[in-house]
Amino acid sequence: GLWELRNRDIQTLSGGERQKLALARAIILDTEVLLLDEPATHLDEVYTASIEEFIGNIMANRPSCTLIIATHNLEQAHRLSKEIIFLRAGRIQSISPQNSQRCLND
User: Can you give the residue ranges of the ABC transporter domain (predicted)?
Assistant: First the structure.
C-alpha cells in the first residue's frame, strides 16, 4: 500500500512506488479516462505484478472509467485489456487480444 510511504520524500521512492502514487492520484481526481504510458517500464517482475494488480483493482471498482495503456509489452496488454488497438507503420488496427499474435505475424 501507499500509507507507509506518506512521510517519505518522493525522490526516495522506487519506480514502482512512484507508479502507484501516480495511479492513486488519478483515482483521487476521479478521472473518466486513465491514460498510462508504459506503466511497468524499468520495473522488476514483482513491481510489475503489483502495478497490474493495482490497475485491475482500479478498473474493477470504476466500471465507467476507460483505461488506455501505451505499451510495447504485448503480454501486459493481454493481461490488462479487453480490446487492443495495435499500431503498425502508422496504421491503427482494432483487434481482440486473441487475434493480436496473428496480426504481429502478418
Answer: 3-40
Residue 87 DSSP SS3? strand
Cβ contact 59:65 at 8 Å: yes
Through-space distance between the first and last CA atoms of the chain, rounded to whole angstroms:
42
Q: String of b and e for 18-33 (b: at least 16 CB within 10 Å)?
A: ebbeebeebeeeeeee
Q: Which long-range contacts (CB under 8 A, 24 or more apart) does 62-66 make?
A: 62/27, 64/32, 65/31, 65/32, 65/33, 65/34, 66/32, 66/33, 66/34
Q: Specify the 3-state DSSP secondary structure of 32.
A: coil
Contact by Cβ (8 Å): 82, 93? no
Half-sphere exposure of 82 (CA within 13 A, CB side): 6
Strand, coil or helix: what is 72? coil
Alpha-carbon distance 48 to 99, whole Å?
A: 24
Q: How far apart are CA 31 and CA 49, in angstroms?
A: 23
